[in-house]
Design brief:
Layout lengths: L1 E7 L2 E7 L2 H23 L28 E6 L2 E6 L2 E6 L7 H14 L5 E6 L5 H13 L4 E5 L5
C-alpha cells in the first residue's frame, strides 16, 4: 500500500492509497488493447469493392467488354434471383433445401453467353444465415466471376 504523510500546522495526516483497483483497471485495459490490436488487422480483407477490380497503375483502366451489363445474384427466402442486364431468372428452393446446383447451372450458361464478363454483385436477405453469402460468393468465383461485390438486399 502507498502511504502519504504530510505535516503542516503541527498536524500529521496519514493517508493510505489502495492501488489494487488501479492495477486491476490497467491489466484490463492492456488486455483489451492487445486483443483489439489483433482484430484491427483482420478487418482489412479486400472483397473487390469495385466492379472493375482494383486500380494497379496511374493509367486509366479501360472498361472491359460487356461491363455495362450488370450481373446480380439475390439470395432470398424463396431461393435465388439472377439478374443479368434486362433478363431475370428465378431458381426456387427444393422444399427447404437450397438449389445450389441450379445456381451453378445458370451461372455457367451466363458465362457461356458472356465469356468476357468476370464481375458481379451478390445480395443476401438479412434474415438468412451468413453461410448463404459465403456459399454464394464461392459459387460465383468457381463459375468465373472473380470480381464480386457484396451489396445490401435490393427492394422487391
Amino acid at each position: 500500500m502507498a502511504q502519504v504523510e504530510e505535516s503542516g500546522n503541527g498536524r500529521s495526516s496519514n493517508v493510505e492509497l489502495n492501488l489494487v483497483p488501479f492495477i486491476d483497471l490497467m491489466s484490463v485495459l492492456i488486455t483489451f488493447l492487445l486483443i483489439t490490436a489483433v482484430w484491427s488487422q483482420v478487418s482489412m480483407i479486400q472483397l473487390g469493392s469495385s466492379l472493375y477490380a482494383k486500380k494497379t497503375d496511374d493509367k486509366p483502366q479501360e472498361t472491359p467488354p460487356l461491363a455495362d451489363i450488370p450481373l446480380r445474384v439475390d439470395v432470398k427466402e424463396m431461393g435465388f434471383r439472377i439478374i443479368i442486364g434486362s433478363e431475370k431468372f428465378e431458381i426456387a428452393k427444393a422444399g427447404t433445401e437450397w438449389n445450389w446446383p441450379g445456381l451453378v447451372e445458370r451461372l455457367k450458361s451466363i458465362k457461356e453467353k458472356y465469356p468476357e464478363k468476370n464481375d458481379g454483385v451478390i445480395t443476401v436477405d438479412e434474415s438468412l444465415a451468413y453461410e448463404n453469402l459465403i456459399t454464394g460468393m464461392d459459387t460465383m468465383i468457381q463459375n468465373g466471376f472473380q470480381n464480386i461485390s457484396v451489396s445490401t438486399a435490393q427492394p422487391e
